[in-house]
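Team,

Forwarding the record for the chain on the shared tracking sheet. I've put the sequence and predicted structure together so nobody has to dig through attachments.
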Amino acid sequence: MDRYKLNNHRLSWIIGLIILFASSLVSAKNSKYIIYKVSSFVYKARTSLGLITKLRSGRQCLQLRKRIISLIPEIDNWSVTIIDSLGNKFVDINGEHLRIPASNQKLLTTAYALDKLGPYYSLDTTVSYRPENKYIMRGNGNPDLSENNIQALAEDIAEHISSNLRGDQVPHIIFLEEDRKYWWPNHWIQSDRNWEYGAPITRLAYLGNSVSNSLHDPLSSFHKTFTHYLSKSITNYQTSTKLPTNYLFKNNGQVISIIKSSPMQSLLSLSNSESHNFTSEVLLRQASKTWDTYAAITGLYKWLARYGLSNSTITISDGSGLSRTNKVSTNILSSLLYRMNYHPLSAYYFSSMAILGKRGTLSSFPGSNELNGIFVGKTGTLTNVRALSGVLKNNNGNTYISIIGNNVSYSDGLISRILVETSNSSYCH
């Protein structure tokens, strides 16, 4: 047993003992959370020591590399990186070239959000009452906040007003919302902002601002829906919109209503499997604890650097990949997938992805039926950009693949052939 494996073996025993001890000290209700926190801490320690996520460049498969190159007509426009189950960079074709990743950017964002926020996080919308007849509504970007949810918030406020305020007391409902300058990443072009996939990123969002009136005036759309239901019971009230920074958490008063979002697993799936831009952008902001896009991106940069997944030349402009100024390499994306396989929350991460031939954006992906169900991953599409990164599961174990083409036409067929070749290949095994 080499030194690398020996250190891993010893540390695995230590992990088991720590988790067992921590679990014995807490109730069953809290044991899962404690186990997650301990496992997360140990994972970070192991990563910093290079014990479990160290990539190895010694074992390459030149035969498979040559075969893949023969499939690609314009090789300079493509990058392909394949890492085997042991961490060997099996194939590297232009792997260091920086390319527009499109929605493959979401793989970075969701890994970051899952690691920082954990599996039990939710995007709650709350209403708090303060003694000066104020009702503070604060959202966190729940992408599924429906009309029924908004109605419930209005009815809870109306009930509290009827039960606690005198007739001469005028309630004041305050909506907390971010400054308009933070609603869209700076590098999103105007034409994209006119469509649902480029909807504004607000804290209070009616169905993720996907309805037509919300695309340009989300506050008015939310306010109109809310007051429609509130006015059925309460006729004399005031409303206003304030910045969240004006209301500190500790001064928000008594919570009288709360709408919880779908669990973290669903949020990850909405981002990765369904490629929902709004959700990805919200997760980036929540993980970095700021709605300032630049500050949120800085948090992602630091996280990537901490885990050895960044260099000084990559460019991150948003959390969803809609910006054409994002630049990432297939080496970084495939390395991320390999490293996340060892993360204590890896099951949450990989189960959130699309499944070829089965689910999400890969449900109708062209190609051989033999790939159905054995490849999970994330697609990426912009004009003249096509990307696919994920995990191929076969008899040789997990294979981590990232493929990006820039300045290319519709190329799903080519990507499918690369996957088939990799899956069927007996080269170097």
